Amino acid sequence: MKMTVGVKSLREAMYFLSAGADEVYCGIARVSNNRLARENFSSPAEIRRVIALAAPAGKKVFLAVNEFVKEEDYTSTLRLLAGLKEAGLAGAILRDPALLAYFKKKKFRFYFTLSTLANCFNAGTLRFFADLGISRLVLPMQMMPENAAGLIKNRLGVETEVFCPALYYGVNLDSQCYLPCPQTSEAASGSFRDFTCLLPFRSKAGTFHMPMPGPDYMLNAVYDFHRAGVGYLKVARWPNTLRQADLFHKARYMLKLLEKGISRKLFLHEGRKIDSKPLEYGKSFTLKPFAG
After folding, report:
1. Long-range CB contacts (< 8 A, 24+ apart) of 268-271?
2. Residues 6 or more apart from 164 whose CB is under 8 A from it?
3. Which fold has domain 2-284?
4. What is the C-alpha to C-alpha distance for residues 263 and 66, in angstroms, rounded to an integer?
5. Domain segments of the chain: what residues?
6. What residues are paired with 92 via a beta bridge?
């Protein structure tokens, strides 16, 4: 498995690449992506600086365009990606099938990663997006290894990527996440009492929360995704960079254990020592980038 990490600044890119990340991805404020504007780079020139940093080490940079894009912005988005591709950008992360269809019509070939926000849960959906030109799939956070085998071992040449389940988990589908979250300190967040990925469901029978799997189940999922052949382990862009660094090093430690070929029993023993607490990630969701 290779590690891919989201970054919000050149300094973060320097830190994570030097700490062992194989890839970094980032957003730019003028293109729709699943982050607040202040968590994005401000210009293509800044993205080029990250590319220049990663390229000598043989590492890759991707751009997140993982929200729906207005049709009137298709041309400018294509122009942006084409320019950054020429500068060495490795690919883009998308969820919008209409945008992918537009790129296909324009014969713009690139390494496209299908965002987890696209909710690709089955082989038919994967074939649909593969026909639109995707090269990699980020598995939905709610999908466990026993259900993902057909996607991981697909015959379409599509690579797969997964969040580290023991550190990241939302019980509800990611496509409902539009940010901001309560802890972002945005004025508009006041009306939200919780994260959409954790909100309860209301019914005539009362209020129901989707169950959160226990730590052993999550650790087993990490182990099984690795054994199944998933190619990339993802650490998401995190508003609180110190918290993200903490998650990165924990995920990197898990990956090193797996690369040693240790037994499931020993992996669970070591994994239980990690303070993951996936339900509490919201407490660190206030924007705190590296100083300076």
Report:
1. 268/216, 268/219, 268/220, 268/223, 271/166, 271/215, 271/219, 271/222
2. 222, 233, 234, 235, 247, 250, 251, 254
3. TIM Barrel (3.20.20)
4. 36
5. 2-284
6. 63, 112
Average pLDDT value over all residues in the chain: 89
For 200-237, how does the pLDDT look when each residue is reduced to its tens digit (9 = 90+)? 788 889 988 888 888 899 999 999 999 999 999 999 98
Query: Quick one: pLDDT at residue 278?
Result: 54
Place of tokens 């982050």: 35
DSSP 159: E
Q: How far apart are CA 168 and CA 222, in angstroms?
A: 11
Range scoring the smallest mean pLDDT among 88-92, 188-192, 241-245: 188-192
Is the overall model pTM greater than 0.85, yes or no? yes
DSSP assignment of 115-144: PGGG---SHHHHHHHHHTTEEEEE--TT--
